[in-house]
Amino acid sequence: MRNDITRRGFLSLAAAGGTLTGWLGRLAAHAADQPKAKSCILLWMSGGPSHLDTFDLKPDASDRIRGEFQPIDTSVPGIQISEHFPKFAKLMQHAAVLRSMSTVESDHQLASYHVHTGYHKRAGGVAFPSLGAIVSRELGSKDFPLPHFVCIGAGPRHSTRSGFLGPDHQPLDVLSPDRGTDFLEPLTNRIEFARQYDLLRRFDSSFHEAYRAEAARAHSSALARAVRLMTAEEKRTFDLSQESDADRDRYGRGSFGQGCLMARRLIETGVRFVEVMMGDGVGWDTHRDNFPRTRTLSAEADAGMAALIKDLQERGRLDSTLVIWMGEFGRSPQITSGGGRNHWSRAWSSVLVGGGIRGGQAIGRTDRDAAEVVERPISVTDFLATVCTILGIDYTRENHPPGIKRPIPIVDTSKEVSVISELL
Length: 424
Description:
This protein is about 35% helix and about 15% strand. It is an alpha/beta fold. β13 and β14 form a beta hairpin. α7 runs antiparallel to α8.
């Protein structure tokens, strides 16, 4: 059904006895039935958080495996999580814990790339786009003044690029949410800035016409996006000083908490994908001192994530915003001599909240030691295909990158893909 109506069609409707109010009522009902574009916030736990110490505790395992933390009840009977996520535990009715993630990459860089893109990284191979770039391409509006892909927080960014989707979907990197908009202000007055930019654009245009190089196009695109952002009224979204001290305190005053607050503001403004990184330096890579470090990191993550979810719910945006909590893999069941846990990709956990999913459930199961998946294994392609489906993106749609002869689907469908139907 078309949403528009021609003048002739309107007159025909009136002649047939249709009333204006009846027609408008049907239009409104039809509009209400149409799926609204969704947004996504990825809370990225860089380094790989221990699933045994966050969302898949094993209190019946041996001392060398179960660790120090105790499980606590959540708002959903039968689902328990770490005692260091007490605020999030009260919101479990909105969430689904995926306890049977199972992947093959145990190297930080390779695993992070795989989880972000759905493809394996190969030296000299295709540069695949990350989930943020895919969402920007599929759901973003071209005339929107802000980038539809924003990365907040310090951390490794090798996996959060646009790949073959090009410069138009490259993320805007905000290293520190506390800086607000100071990095967006021109160094001169607006009139002089406009004059200088116009001159630069004319120089670039003649160069591009002469050489038509991809690097020149990328440069022009980046420049245009930067200027549009610098002159947009929406850039105030990055200014957290507009929030009350009480609200900023609820999120936690660390980089992650303030990043979650900025993510909420960006989503409300119309940005489609925001990635908030937690784990500058070693982050969740707890080869030593796993328990004191995980305790501190969990408390910070709990405050920011819980405040974000509560705000999205109260503002009527949780059903249209998918929040993902995850890292690149989990940690080993065995505790090392230094009180740490090593990399573990064979079984680990991620969490989905909102986005219209069926919350209040734990999907999949690991064995007594959380070492192997014994029920409902979820691969990276299963996970990303599910995320795309939740967001209203056809994960089988093929891209045709320049210089590459074969079409490339959004999610690698060369092997069987199983969407997590329990969420839908």
